[in-house]
Each structure stands twice: as structure tokens, then as C-alpha cells.
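pls design
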């Protein structure tokens, strides 16, 4: 019976060491998550002006694209009528 008690004590000691290792790992993970949370809290506030500038640039580019698309459509309409003009004069 003393042999069984000794084996149980060893098993409990091993389990205790495993739990200590798991607790240490969780503490390290908790610290990392807290560090990441602090960066996230600080991050958006510090990058807000840059994000606003990028949004303004994006808006300006969208406007330029719309203007160019309208010009392209106009050129296609004019080009289409010009292309039709020689064909209709050749048929005369």
C-alpha cells in the first residue's frame, strides 16, 4: 500500500508540474493579449489622420475616374458617329 501511495504522490506531483506549466503558458498568452490590446487602443487614434487622408485621396480618385469614364463615353459616341459617317458617304 505504501508503494501505491508513492505512485499516487508521483502522479499528483507530475500533474502539479503540468498545471504549473499550463498556468505559466496562460500567463504569457494573457500578457501578449494585453500588449496587443494596448496597441489596438493606441493604434487607431494615431493612424486616424493618415486614414482620413487616404479616404480623401480615394474620394478624389473616384471623382477622376467618373470624369474620365464620362469623357471616354463621349469619345466613343463621337467616334462611333465619325466611323458611321464615312460608311454612309461611301454608300452614296
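designed seq:
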Amino acid at each position: 500500500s505504501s508503494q501505491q501511495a508513492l505512485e499516487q504522490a508521483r502522479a499528483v506531483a507530475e500533474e502539479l508540474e503540468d498545471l504549473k506549466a499550463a498556468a505559466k503558458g496562460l500567463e504569457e498568452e494573457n500578457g501578449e493579449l494585453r500588449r496587443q490590446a494596448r496597441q489596438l487602443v493606441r493604434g487607431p487614434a494615431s493612424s486616424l489622420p493618415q486614414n482620413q487622408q487616404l479616404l480623401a485621396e480615394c474620394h478624389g480618385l473616384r471623382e477622376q475616374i467618373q470624369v474620365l469614364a464620362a469623357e471616354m463615353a463621349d469619345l466613343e459616341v463621337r467616334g462611333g458617329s465619325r466611323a458611321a459617317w464615312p460608311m454612309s458617304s461611301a454608300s452614296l
